[in-house]
Amino acid sequence: MSSTNVPKTTARLEARVNPEIKALWQKAADLQGVTLTDFVIASVQTAACKVIEQQQTLKLTTEDAEAFIEAILNPPQPSDALKEATLRYQQVMKNNAIND
Fold first, then answer.
1. Does the residue 10 lie in any domain?
2. Which pTM value belongs to this model?
3. What Rg, from alpha-carbon coordinates, does the chain have?
4. Which of 10, 40, 44, 67 is most buried, by CB atoms within 10 Å?
């Protein structure tokens, strides 16, 4: 007889905290009506998402934003070094296409 319930894969996480911190967390979990484990998981999940969002969000000062917009709307002319690099890149790509 086969079971229709497929066990979910989980990973174990252990942490040692002092009793005061655990008591604080337990009180918060009790107030929310959830287990300590569920409270910790939800809290860590929320904190992790917040940190990732903060790190992936580009924040510019007003001056930075204006400089960015100016560069997009009125890009500077390419320097000689950039022109030479473009030619080298095109040559490499051409050689790669020939060798393929």
1. no
2. 0.54
3. 28
4. 40
Q: What one-letter code names the amino acid at 33?
A: G
Cα–Cα dist 28/47, whole Å: 16
Contact indicator for 39, 27 with CB cutoff of 8 Å: no
Domain assignment of residue 12, yes or no: no
N-term to C-term CA, the chain: 56
Q: Compute the distance between CA of residue 18 and CA of residue 20 in angstroms, rounded to an integer.
A: 6
As given in the structure block, the two tokens for residue 7 are: 């066990």
- Going residue by residue through the chain, which has 100 residues, state the pLDDT in tens, using 9 for 90 and above: 455 666 678 899 999 999 999 999 999 999 999 999 999 999 999 999 999 999 998 888 999 999 999 999 999 999 999 999 999 999 999 998 887 7
Is residue 30 in some structural domain? yes
Write out the residue range of the structural domain in which residue 23 sits.
19-99
Residue 5 lies in a domain: no
Cα separation, 44 vs 50, in Å, equals: 10
